[in-house]
Amino acid sequence: MRAEIISVGTEILLGDILNTNAQFLAKELAAIGIDVYNQTVVGDNEERMLKAFKNAFEKCDLIVATGGLGPTPDDLTKETAAKFFEQELVVHEESWKHIESYFNKSGRIMEGSNAKQAYFPKDAVVLPNPNGTAPGAILKKDEKMIVVLPGPPKEMKPMFINHVVPYLQQYSDTILVSKVLRIFGIGEGVMAEEISDIINGQSNPTVAPYAKERDVTLRITAKARDEEEARKLIKPVEDKIRERLNDNIYGEDDVTLEEVVAKMLVSNKLTIATAESCTGGLIAATLINYPGISEVFMEGAVTYSNDSKMQRLGVKSDTLEKYGAVSEETAGEMAEGIAKKAGTRVGISTTGIAGPGGGSTDKPVGLVYMAIHIDGTTLVRKFNFQGSRERIRQRATMNALDWLRRELIKKFNN
Q: What's the pTM value of the predicted model, to 2 decimals?
């Protein structure tokens, strides 16, 4: 089948609401082997909706529409779909009872306007909505189909997964299965060059690189009759990519870099403390996103001033006077100092110039020194980042975590 996603709502057109429904539906339809040809946004207007339906069916067999199933007069999606197919709306008793029960349980009186949510074409497949008052529906005529779904994601997503997917699977004899490899430490261009022959020679599965704010990803997607067959197609391609990119791959699918690092720390019972200047506590805040990190994360110190570096971490005044706060020497003493004060096996530090001002020829904006003190050994690295203050701090945080990940691999894999 070929599909078009139509998102209904003037608030989407005005930019008041982010259209996450289209993203979700595109992924889910692709996963069951249905090609999405177009995505359209249309306001709460019958004439424009009818035109959108007409244009979609010139190219597609299936329309999936979200929004416009509420009780107000401008909620017109279901009514317009029925009009397009020349189908009369009649009361659907089961939906009527559900809406009445929904109001009774919440201690409210059912408004007359809500009654319209219980009306559907006689031959429509009505989709129950346990999370709201607006049922969805599948309308069909000849070889064309319109699926109407509620707009709120908490209602739309379970309805689509639990009812629409099983229904649509009968129209597809293949499925798409994807595996995402998450990469940090090399840019998209370098990565693409390393595996250019794999990308250029792709057919099934396909390999697609994506550069994101936090990392780079490779999506390997196979089309097959079932998931087992698709996984078998993916594996040799994945193995070849892992051989080329090695430790630059930190995880797969939805895993985050901080999750990988936190798991390594916890599983190896490696205690850690952080001392941050330019990152302002971002490393600590990122690590504690992981439930269970309290087993090994002892404390985080934001030592922004020279006085705090000396008093809290024991950085020598001579070091600061001779080399400055943004230096290899200061970073090393910060990491050693926090590990000693907190009694941890690992100390990690950052000191740098996040900007936008304060830089010089010798020490420009974006210069960051990091140090890792681990079981008595101190390592220091120098980085130069570009971008806004926020971006420099974020990139410093992610690079610190990735560097720690690589050091932990060396330590525990040898």
A: 0.75
